[in-house]
Amino acid sequence: MPFKSLGLRAELHRAVSEKGYNAPTPIQRQAIPHILEGRDLMGGAQTGTGKTAGFTLPLLQRLMSSGKPEKGRRAIRALVLTPTRELAAQVAESVDIYGRYLPLRSTVVYGGVKINPQIQKLRNGVDILVATPGRLLDHVNQKTADLSKIELLVLDEADRMLDMGFIRDIRKVIALLPRKKQTLLFSATFPNEIKRLANELLNSPALVEVARHNPAAEGVTQRVHLVDNKRKRELLSFMIGSNNWKQVLVFTRTKHGANRLSKQLLTDGITATAIHGNKSQGARTRALADFKAGKVRVLVATDIAARGLDISQLPHVVNFELPHVAEDYVHRIGRTGRAGNEGEAMSLVCVDELKLLRDIERLIKRDIPRVVIEGFEPDPSIKAEPIHKGRGRQQTANRPAGKKGATARNKRQPSFKDHANNPGRPGRRARNRARHAR
Ligand code: AMP
Q: Cystine design at 316: which of 235, 240, 248, 375 (Cβ 3.0–4.6 Å)?
């Protein structure tokens, strides 16, 4: 299906073909006609599906047909809310690119940078504002952003906004908007809180969903390397060095862990940089640019920092630590092996993480092959310590063996004995499958 059949204006076609897109992606094909009709929409799609153009193109067209932009001071007519600064910057860039042949103005506001240049841009008047919720409210409080003329609201990555605790801010923003407007909500997952928000916000929405990107089925080789926690860094440096990897995205669970690991890699002679929410906007942009340009070999990221970033088709993704939420594993490994490219996703798993690994395998409905690397065999006598969510969890495995609670004494903790003795043996699920196949 060509772009032409979607009924977009010539200026938008021109911008899209200059980007080199030949045909709309499935989410674009499904969402654009509904949005052009003026319907509310609930979109199930994650980064990498083309969802940004899926809402930006029809948004631009709607603004063009809802009346000519006024000369001089313009009112903000479309608002796009995103969870992170990076995503806000990327969406704003897309708005610029797709709207380059239209007389519409846009700007972006997010925290972590000076507010005055943003105020200046808002004063000049914009039709479209892309924003993170906190900084937007700062502007509202300072009366530098007027949201009373909004015709179109987009909530991008709504589930992540909720995860990041923005629900109150979002509700405050929504309370400032006119009742009559078109609302588009995009989310990769639909937990109850999102459904509740959607029920309150959306008026007989069109529902569109694109099949979850399933890296397990798309040429991504997945492997688990069983290793003791304290030897993970050494193993990572060994893997990067011995395979001569040039571009590796490494995930850690915490900001602190990301910083520490990138410093340690540097001491091992491997160029690395960390990206997470505590870094200034400038530092995050630089880190990403250096990584994309091949100036640093390793980008160490937390899930939140990586979410929404346009970094894909990487040859190697390493989970230095497994995520607490199994779905994040799918997001992480989705960074590799896209669009027919081969990719490798490796997870360094210590005994404390075997439960998380089981959760992931249940979610992706397959066992990930275990490979023990010679010289890094885990110590079978080490017993698992529960991993606590929240502060300091990265230290659990190093905790000195002191007085243990009743649970630790009585319950059988998972150990590497079951796994490490026979690393090549397929897991229970695979064995069952094989039995059925026979
Ligand atoms: P998104 O999911 O919006 O972050 O988009 C993911 C990537 O797909 C971006 O790099 C876009 O430039 C690209 N993209 C969006 N639409 C198309 C299309 N119709 N054809 C090819 N690539 C696209």
A: 248
